[in-house]
Queue: 4 jobs
Job 1
Amino acid sequence: MHYPVWYLPEIGGGTLIALIAVFHVFISHFAVGGGLYLVLAEKKGLAEQSQAILDFTKRHARFFLLTTMVLGSISGVGIWFIIALVNPAATSYLIHNFVFGWAAEWVFFTVEIAAAFVYYYFFGRMESSTHLKVGYLYFFAAWMSLLLINGIIGVMLTPGAWAESSLFWQGFFNPSFWPSLFFRTCIAVLMAGCYGCLTAAWSDEEEVRVKMTRFSGIWSLVAMVAAIPCALWYVAVLPEQAQQLVTGKSPTVALALQYGLVAVILLLVLTLVTAILRPTLNNRPVALAAMLCAFVMLGSFEWTREAARRPYVINEVIYSNSIFKKDLESLNEKGFLKSALWVQHHEVTADNRMGAGHELYIQQCYSCHTLGAGNNDLAALTEKMSYPALVAYIGKMHTIRPFMPPFAGTDTEVRALSAFLAGEVHGKETVDVVAEAGDGLAAGKQLFEENCAACHAREDLSGAFAGKDVVGAGEMLSTLNEISDEMEPFGGTDEERNQLAGYLISESGGIVSTAGVDGGGVFDTHCSACHAVEDITEFTSGWDRAQIFTNLGRLPELVPEMPPFEGTETEREALADYIDGLKGGK
């Protein structure tokens, strides 16, 4: 809102962050665990007096130096660059609140660089004991970098009391600090083992390849086993909503976790079979396959961790669309566009409605949704929704889907965004329609648009309501949470529930029966003063049950002298049943 939006309609900024971030953490965790791996591999060579193992360690150190200091550093800068462009508000907030932590991390990173260069370039050129100390120094500095970054990014998911106090140490030692630190340390050791197997696979000496493959495989196996309790601990400290997301509430998160689980199982099998039990099987394709599994596993974890923050980018502080939670009430009252700095339209008018709606999409939706592209394509997601359905849904989408930020703005702005999506994107009508009094079917349709159409197409529900009567359909609407825990019971009045039930039944081709309501009594009360039974039978002879029900809601259109039917929706259903029964329609 206070920064311009870097608009990339074809891909979305979030996708770029994900691609760069996963690539970077795949290397940065190796940069931590790999430092300890080098020291212990060197100690192994010294203990066994094996020059071949020492030569392997030096080759691995060269690979380590190039990978971590070149690719790791470039991708690290890339992360800062991309997050500053995509979400400058959150980036600025974290820098200003944790400037001491970032400064300390940069100091340790400087030590890492110096120690890594000394370790490689003085390999075999200084006393072994001194050289090992340099390696340990590198590992300590790298692990301290991990510790510091872990504390800062952890607060984005589990802020705890920091969300209110903004105190540095409360944020740094947030609820997920320790489980996340131990889990990431396990991942760092796992990465060291995987990269070690990769270097071993390129070794020309069979004995060294077998020895160092098994050595690396043990690292990977121990890390995977140790990571299990750490992961469970990590999940246990998450906020309730985040726990629900990572345990299956979100289909996309569940899918990512499935990919991660498959990758872990494959990596475990490869580690056991080709690294520990039969290390002679480790070759370049096998090692690359293990690396791919590790990459997918780590990508699944990072994507899930990011998704678990929804609807926030910094939990309880900044929503994923860069709107501060504390500003929401003011924006709803005054209007979002009026407060936004980088928009062309600061209020919605009849002339700029579509343009204002497009700007609202960019400012509030684009951070997670593209239009016609692959990142949560909003065009596809809203394809079956009408303008009234969008108006109703956007106004309460945070209630329906808590992992989405609430819309920030006035009702007029809600309608502008809805008009842009329905009219500009889908070419649908964007007229506000209000059902006429007495037209129960139209009222039911409007209730469907407002309460159901965000998730369900009308035709998708035909089977569920076919053959139901109003009472049965109404009972279903009252117990939707028992049908699916992702739905809530219909919250309207009894009459509105009956109107919605009547609409769903009529659209499903069913016959509405209203057990407990005497249709003959309804006829006597509302019709018999002017109409005899035989007159009604003749007048409706060409209508089926659904047409009778519909036309009872539009009597003044059929005969201008007739007043609208003034009974309840249930009574109209009962009257339709009664008239249809007089004709032998049942």
Note: The CA atoms of residues 225 and 321 lie 38 Å apart.
Job 2
Amino acid sequence: MKNEPIPASKAETTDKKLTSILYLLQTQLEEMKDEADRSYELHKIGEKTDLVKYIEQRLDDPFGGLVKMSNNLDSQLKDLLNVFVKHFLRSNRELISSAYLDKTQREDLNYSIILNEDSLESRIAILNFYEIYDQIEPTLKFPVHFQFVPDQLADRISYKEKLDLSDKE
């Protein structure tokens, strides 16, 4: 008969995780305190550490960091929504000849779509996207617009990116 380890109880497992987290937190705080102590001593003799420079920036422009972080998050969200749209269009590639992310001055995501067959059924299939998209919270901040373009006007599309609709799965 093998000696199999006795499984730890949920309380023991939770206790081990908690102990590990507290140890990591303690270590991180000690490192931060060491950095603060070092920065304090160097500041007294006129030297500026990265920590002192960071604090000075926050004192000079307390909201600048928040605005920068907000803009960064918005940019990442917009990129994620663009991936979502691309995935949707890729899943309907049998209806689409080509698709483009248009150049715009606003934050909107505008797409020009050339259908293989410009029919009401094809347009409805693509516009069904909004049934999904309208359930997502950031739809007001980042509207998505589809514009159906006749094939003969494709060369007039001012685009930022031609979308690759090939199967990438």
Note: The mean pLDDT is 86.
Job 3
Amino acid sequence: MKHLLRTAALIALGGLSACSTPGYRTLNPSCLDMAAQPKYQRDGHQDTTYIVAVLAGRSPQDAARLSFFNQAADDVAMPFAAPQVSVWGSFGAWGYRHRINAVLHSLHGGNTEAVAQRRLDLAGLIAGRVGAGGGADWQTGFLIHSLGDSYAHTNAVGEAYGGLYGHVFDGHWPDLVGNRQALYFDYVDALFAALEVDGASDREGLAAFKASLRATPDGDVSAVRSAILAMRDDIAPAPRLECEALADELTMRNVSRFLREVEAGFGRGRPVS
């Protein structure tokens, strides 16, 4: 039986590895050669973070770093993305699997009250880090990913999906911004408030960004994605990042330790190192 389980795990990992080339190498404009263009944009995490961070008064460089680290939670797939970790973590790494799914990707299975509290906790942690000089580190980027997923990874009645199956039975529907614009605007407002720099933010720009999305047809996912991409192109050129070096900052040991501390601080107002 152990041999069969080991074989099944290796087969599963082999299939996942074939799809695990880090997405930032082809999809993040801050990681591409000047002549190259990404195949498509990731609007919910990568591009929204860049737009909102710049509008909140952060520098394009810091916005790009936060955008990179936010998306890295999905891009660096084998150690950090929910689908991959859900497979290999089921073979003896349940604690790590729980932290990746329930904390990093906000798949905690809570009711609407728990969801609201999780959003408040995450927004507070982000504001605390940037206010204390944490700025654009990977920890803040991962917290922003968790905050975004605390909105996206909820079902039609506002309850969080659980860590066992995630939203597999609803497909990609929860992650598509155009399907739930009002919920997306709630996230944008929360992220803007957490990142806002007094005297440097652009609230009129934020209102214009949301107005451009409201002008798209209801439920038109492609139109919303195009509007977000257009705003990213207009707001500030994407600065070049040393993306491989940034990715090398992410280790399973450090991420696991950080997520453990984050979870321990939920609902307690405890600072996270």
Note: Residues 1-19, 34-41 have pLDDT under 50 and may be disordered.
Job 4
Amino acid sequence: VILKKSVGIAGTIGGSSFEHKSEIEKIEEIKEQNKILLEKLYRVIELIEFGLNEIKNDKYYEIITMMYFDKMTYEQIAEKLNLSDKTVKRHRNRLVNELSLIIFPDEILEKF
């Protein structure tokens, strides 16, 4: 294994300099940054799952699953649920607002 030191113009990732780091050190730094990113993404997924679980008993919860998981349009959902497009949009908006209050309560409070 050949270890190279970078010379000349230094590259940066995430604000840290790669100048004078071996290739292995660079790879380890990138791995650590990716690990941190993955942990953040897992936390976001947990928050979304928690929020969805909190609203799952809503009469119109199915609108969320149809729209975001099944990729159905307002028109398709309205037809399937025998509702108007306007009603589907209204309930989708209401449920998304409820989710945002559950998932991001601190951010909501900061707006006031």
Note: The two ends are 58 Å apart (CA to CA).
